[in-house]
Every structure is written in C-alpha cells, then in structure tokens.
Amino acid sequence: MGKSKGKKQGVVEVNCSSKNEYQDIITILNTNPVRILANRVLAQSIIDRASDFYMRRTGKEARMAYKIDGKRYGMESPPSNVYGLMVSEILSLLGEEYPTATRIRVPGSDGNLEADVSLASMSESSLHLTFCYD
Predict the structure, then answer these.
(1) Residue 36 φ then ψ, to 5°
(2) Where are the domains of the chain?
(3) Span 4-132: which CATH code?
(4) How many CA atoms lie within 13 A of 128 on its CB side?
(5) Helical ranges in 2-82 per DSSP H
(6) 29, 121 in Cβ contact below 8 A?
(7) pTM of the model
(8) pLDDT by residue (tens digit) across 24-74?
(9) Which end of the chain is more exposed for a tag (fewer CB within 10 A), N or C?
C-alpha cells in the first residue's frame, strides 16, 4: 500500500490498494513516512486523471489541489512543516531527470494506469506538476 517500487525500465510504479481508499492525512503522517503520502497524492491524481497537481505553502498549511477538465479540486492538506519533505519525496519519485517527463504507473484492479509526469514549475513555496496520458 502506497510504497514505491522504484524505477523499472524508465517507469516509476506507485501502489494504491484501492481506487476508493481515502485516509485522513494526519493519520498517514502520524503512522507512515511522508513518502507514502507523496505516493498516494500522485496515485490519486493519476486515478482521477488530473491534468495538473499544485502544492503551495501558505501560513500554517501546505495546500494541495489538482485540476480535472479545467476545474480545480482541493485535497486535504498537511501542515506547512511537511511541505519541504513532500516536495523532496515527489522530486525523488520523478528521479534525477525531473525536468523531463517521468512515466508513473499505478497498478489497480482494472489494470495499470500510467501517466507521464513533468515538473511544470517550482519555487520556495509552490510546486506544479503536469500529467499527460496516452
């Protein structure tokens, strides 16, 4: 559940045990590493076929959202002190060549879902990823 399998022939595989599995983010942070949260956020974005993922540190929280068909949907967000760790884990999943697209696979009961994920922009307080599907 939620752990990275690493690169396989240029593909990063992230697992999410169920398309409909949602857990409270605070529970995840208290019981599992931030890597699991990063995997879940990317997996959920791909499962929902998001075109973009946004994360921004604002005050006491790190706001997360993704865009589907031009509409932005907020996600439950972690505290801002986790922002740097989340960015680090996401960039780690994208690999050393994160300015170019990294293929991410999410295995599921309906077969594998895949997307090319690219870093669109990044600053000290924000991260923007784009997703491209076949």
Answers:
(1) -65, -40
(2) 4-132
(3) 3.30.450.90
(4) 8
(5) 25-31, 34-47
(6) no
(7) 0.73
(8) 555 555 565 688 888 889 999 999 999 999 999 988 788 999 999 999 999
(9) C
